[in-house]
Amino acid sequence: MKITLWKFLTFLVFGTALQAQAQISPEQFQNISQAFQAEFSAELAQQKAHLNINRPPSPQMPNFWWDLNERHASYSAYTDANGFTEHFLFLFGGYARMPGMTPDGVVMTLCHELGHGIGGAPYKRKTDNTRASTEGQSDYFAARSCIKRVLKYIPEFQPVQAPNAYTENLCRQKFVSAEDLYNCFRGFQALEVERIFFRHLTNGGGETDYHTPDLTVVDTVELQETFYPSAQCRLDTMIAGLLEQERPRCWYAP
Predict the structure, then answer these.
(1) What is the DSSP string of 21-76?
(2) CA-to-CA distance for 168 and 162, rounded, in angstroms?
(3) Strands 49-53 and 21-24
(4) Which residues contact 2 (CB under 8 A, 6 or more apart)?
(5) Do residues 213 and 250 make contact, with C-beta atoms less than 8 angstroms apart?
(6) Helix pair angle (231-242, 178-201), 10° resolution
(7) Closest CA relative to residue 103, chosen from 7, 9, 173
(8) pLDDT in tens for each of the 254 residues of the chain?
(9) What is the distance, to the nearest Å, from the Cα of residue 176 to the centroid of all Cα atoms in its chain?
(10) By CB atoms within 10 Å of each CB, which of 82, 163, 166, 206 scores lowest?
(11) Residue 21, Cβ neighbours under 10 Å: how many?
């Protein structure tokens, strides 16, 4: 489904690895949406499914989601009587306009939301008949698989380099090829945006760092529908995904 966006989105971007200012135009967001379609449409069609991103509630309200100021992104799905599933990803304007947002950050967030639909087990324990991957699994899917699949369609927003020496070393310890290092560095740049969001999400208390992992060890995976791992645990999970490591024990139990 083609969605036309009319409202320009302007973002202030900060951090040593980010440019001083950036502007994400409606055309750029449309390109991101089209990149998801290009990468996943055939795969989903084989699963009797279709992907919708910011589908408006009616043709008369094409800007509906972008006019909302909430800093929010979400996933929902509907399966009809014939077993055909519609996956819906929503990214509200308030989220997209957050200080520090970048195109790659939007991709990582949409990858997380898509992960609820196709990220695999473990699944949340839901009261309805729908199935959704847990928050931790969706984070892992986003960083391990989805982001590198989508970013190949997205022009570089900034020079691709690791955010700092520590993350560069993590990538170089794992990867050798130029392509793998590129994907790793660019993935860590997207995680810088996730860190900004975690800080907002917990009212300034969600400080995270790459070298201070959550040392919690769980015995079972929490499947409650509303459960989220800690901000640090979520960052650790995405780091593990980028580095193709096992899911961390702060939320995952084999």
Answers:
(1) EEEE-HHHHHHHHHHHHHHHHHHHHHTTEEEEES--SSTT-TTTGGG-----EEEE
(2) 5
(3) unpaired
(4) none
(5) yes
(6) 170
(7) 9
(8) 322 222 222 222 223 233 333 446 677 788 899 999 999 999 999 999 999 999 999 999 998 998 888 889 999 999 999 999 999 999 988 888 888 889 999 999 999 999 999 999 999 998 777 899 999 999 999 999 999 999 999 999 889 999 999 999 999 999 999 999 999 999 999 999 999 989 887 666 689 999 999 999 999 999 999 999 999 999 999 999 999 999 999 999 99
(9) 25
(10) 82
(11) 10
Q: What is the CA 18 to chain-centroid distance, rounded?
A: 18
> How large is the C-alpha radius of gyration of the chain?
18
What are the angstrom distances between the C-alpha of 233 and each of 29, 118, 171, 238, 247?
A: 29, 21, 19, 9, 10
DSSP codes, 84-107: -EEEEEEE-HHHHTSTT--HHHHH
**Cα(21)–Cα(103) distance, integer angstroms:** 13
Q: 99 — phi, psi (to 5°)?
A: -55, 130
* Cβ contacts of 44 within 8 Å, gap of 6 or more: 50, 51, 87, 118
Picking from 132, 36, 141, 39, the residue whose alpha carbon sits closest to that of residue 91 is 36
Which pair of structure tokens corresponds to residue 86?
A: 């519609």
d(CA 30, CA 18): 22
Q: Rounded CA gap, 235 and 201, in Å?
A: 13
Estimate to the nearest angstrom the gap between the alpha carbon of 152 and the chain centroid.
15
AA letter at 84: F
Q: Which residue has the tokens 């519609």?
A: 86
Which helix (H) or strand (E) is 199 found in, with range? helix 178-201
